[in-house]
Design a protein that fits this description.
This protein is an alpha/beta fold. It folds into 2 domains: 237 residues, Rossmann fold; 69 residues, Arc Repressor Mutant, subunit A (Orthogonal Bundle). The strands form 4 sheets. Strands 5, 6, 7, 8, 9, 10, 11, 12, 13 and 14 form a 10-stranded mixed sheet that branches. A 3-stranded antiparallel sheet has the order 15-17-16. Strands 1-2 form a two-stranded antiparallel ribbon. Helix 1 packs across helix 2 and helix 3 packs parallel to helix 4. The termini are far apart. It comes from Vibrio astriarenae. Pfam families: AAA_25.
């Protein structure tokens, strides 16, 4: 495979540095020291989706993640706020690799619920093998022509789903890296963000399915967790490279009639989000938090961080990076709520030797 060098000074959302801020050495241009630290950072959705970021929304099948992605796309395309955050308005390209009809009906439901149109959402009803050069070229050319047609900058490219646009084995870093590099080229050539809709594995706690190279490459990552068969879902920010992770949100979708009937004369419906999100209070929702229970029943109210982690994830293999981060977030939330205290070995970072105790 021929490796291509991409100019990613505009990566994520930083405005490209002017040429007088860069100094050439050989054939390469460098910034020096903290030069450019004050460059503005741009968001497609403030504090959630970087303008030029690469990210993933993942969850099990049926977790409403595609409905949520449509909600996001229509909000950006129409300039409406999303989950209470401002958006940068502009066209969105939606690669509907799992079928166009369902996507069109979801967009229509959003339009009816929001009493506006989403004419700036451009749906591609086919898959695109992003690791292949010709697919990248076709997508880049289409985006450029959409921009010429609308006279607006395409803000986001959504790939739904990753698996339908993937060649090879998701579990190998080589094939996953090839896919990521394809997304990087589309992102660099178009200066548009790329978002992939993806599935989790059998064990949801281990994160998105496939090679860990995907999460490592993400600038942001979100997980969807549906509450049984209800229309409620929990939206969890599991990674945010350029800022603090957002609090967990609870979102609710409602059934919307599309003004059509089927052959049985029954209304054709879809789902749309009508209500504002609510911040999920983990402590209220889980009065018997597993950390509190293990601290009390197993350790008598006091344990080292490493021992607590091993008790929560009692397997022969080491906890994944996602599990370690989830545990750290839970400990921080419990500490903030006054349910536990943490005696840190180091004042600047968490340590396996930290002592975690139940509050009295």
């Amino acid at each position: 495979m021929k490796h291509e060098q991409l100019d990613l000074f505009g990566e994520l959302g930083f405005a490209k540095q002017s040429t007088n801020q860069l100094q050439r050495f050989g054939k390469l241009k460098f910034s020096i020291g903290s030069t450019g630290y004050d460059s503005p950072f741009n968001w497609a959705v403030k504090d959630l989706i970087p303008a030029l970021g690469f990210g993933v929304i993942y969850g099990p099948s049926g977790s409403l993640k595609s409905f949520l992605a449509i909600d996001l796309c229509c909000s950006i395309a129409s300039g409406k706020s999303w989950l209470g955050k401002t958006t940068t308005s502009g066209p969105v390209v939606y690669v509907a690799a799992e079928g166009q009809l369902g996507v069109s009906r979801r967009i229509k439901a959003w339009e009816l619920a929001n009493e506006t149109t989403a004419d700036n959402v451009f749906v591609l009803p086919q898959n695109m093998f992003i690791s292949e050069r010709n697919a990248q070229d076709e997508l880049i050319e289409a985006i450029q022509e959409i921009e010429a047609f609308t006279q607006q900058k395409v803000q986001l490219v959504v790939i739904d789903t990753l698996s339908r646009c993937f060649i090879g084995d998701e579990n190998t870093s080589r094939d996953m890296t090839s896919f990521i590099q394809g997304c990087d080229r589309v992102k660099a050539e178009t200066q548009s963000g790329v978002l992939c809709i993806h599935h989790c594995g059998r064990d949801e706690s281990k994160g998105a399915r496939g090679s860990s190279a995907l999460r490592a490459a993400c600038d942001y990552e979100f997980q969807t967790k549906r509450n049984g068969k209800t229309k409620l879902l929990k939206f969890v920010n599991t990674k945010q490279k350029e800022g603090e992770e957002a609090p967990d949100l609870e979102l609710e979708f409602d059934t919307v009639e599309l003004g059509l009937t089927c052959e049985d004369n029954k209304p054709i419906t879809s789902l749309a989000r009508l209500k504002e999100p609510t911040i999920k209070n983990t402590m209220e929702a889980e009065p018997d938090h597993p950390i509190l229970k293990i601290l009390g029943e197993t350790f008598g109210g006091r344990a080292k961080r490493v021992d607590l982690r091993q008790a929560i994830y009692p397997t022969d293999s080491k906890p994944t990076a996602a599990q370690r981060k989830s545990l750290s977030r839970s400990i921080a939330k419990l500490q903030e709520s006054g349910r536990i205290s943490v005696e840190q070995e180091s004042p600047s970072r968490a340590s396996d030797k930290d002592i975690i105790s139940l509050a009295h």
